[in-house]
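Notes from the 1:1 (GR / supervisor)

We went over the backlog. Supervisor wanted to see one worked example end to end before approving the batch request, so GR pasted a single chain during the call. The sequence is below; no edits were made to it. Supervisor asked that the structure be written out right there so they could see what the output format looks like.
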Amino acid sequence: GDGFELWGTDNVGQASHIDAVVLDVTYPESVAPQFTTLSPTNGSTDVDVDADLVITFDERVAVGTGNIEIRRVSDNVALESVDVTSGLVTVDNAAGTNGVVTVNPAGAFPRDTDVYVYIPGGAIADLFGNGFVGITNSTTWRFSKLSPATVFRFR
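Structure output shown during the call:
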């Protein structure tokens, strides 16, 4: 015929025909994860001072090593530094979804201050170990005119 036959030896040395072969091959993926959405969105104004930072990726992810920083735009000073392995950073890889990383800063964002989020390369990686390149500039994830939540007082 046009095919081939596969023969093997059983545990007592008898030759036998092998009817089926199942191969389980895993090819490691080598593409780094990319973010698809940021919350608050880049350029947002009047962001709540207690807002979480949420970044959604195009694939499932895990934390790597490093600190995610909230920096002041005017002088690049880190106002808060959050270790990705701390309890303040969570990853949700729910079935059927891509990776969602949430950072719950320990402090509130300063009022009326322009800030940006700095994420070093390797702080987040996909499940094959390919590191996210990071956000290392002040223009990709920036918020402005931060204000406290509105409080109404009735007398």
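Supervisor's comment: The chain has a mean pLDDT of 86.
Batch request approved.
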